[in-house]
Amino acid sequence: MHEYPPDAPRLHTIRLYLQQQLAEVERRLAEIEKPAPPAPPTPAPEPLTGWKIERSIGADSSPVGVHQADCRLSGKRTRPITRRDAIEAITQGTPPCAFCTPDVALGIDL
Ligand SMILES: [Zn+2]
């Protein structure tokens, strides 16, 4: 351990030095250990709008259904289409999805 001087003036100086050191260590610890600020909220994803057409697996990849863009029942083989293409596909015989009913949304009376 340290050997301290026997006289009060030097012990007071040492005490002051140690108090300053302790204050500095506590300030640094508070800086390091303070909780991280909360993360900013992530924005909600934009809702998908529009329509998409689903195609079959086969080589001809013929259209097998028309969906609204946010339909959860559509398969992975879909691509976005325009409103006009959706109307055309449905009126030419591509079945509208019974779940998301793009025909109703498009005002098509089948
Ligand atoms: Zn659908």
Separation, N- and C-terminal Cα atoms: 94 Å
**General form:** rod-shaped
Question: Roughly how much helix do the residues carry, as a percent range?
Answer: 25-40%
The succession of helices and strands, N to C, reads HEEEHH
Low-confidence stretches: none
Q: What is the strand tally?
A: 3
Bound ligands, each once: zinc ion
Total helices: the number is 3
What value does the Rg take, in angstroms? 36 Å
Strand content: 5-15%
Strand order of the largest sheet: 2-1-3
Task: Tell me about the largest β-sheet.
Answer: 3 strands, antiparallel
Give the helix/strand class: alpha+beta
Mean pLDDT equals 90
Polypeptide structure, described:
There is one protein chain. With 110 residues, this protein is α+β, with helices and mostly antiparallel strands. The protein has a domain at 51-106. It has 3 helices and 3 strands; from the N terminus they run H-E-E-E-H-H. A 3-stranded antiparallel beta sheet has the order 2-1-3. Strand 1 and strand 2 form a beta hairpin. The protein binds zinc ion (ZN). Residues 67, 71, 73-74, 97, 99-100 line the site of zinc ion (ZN).
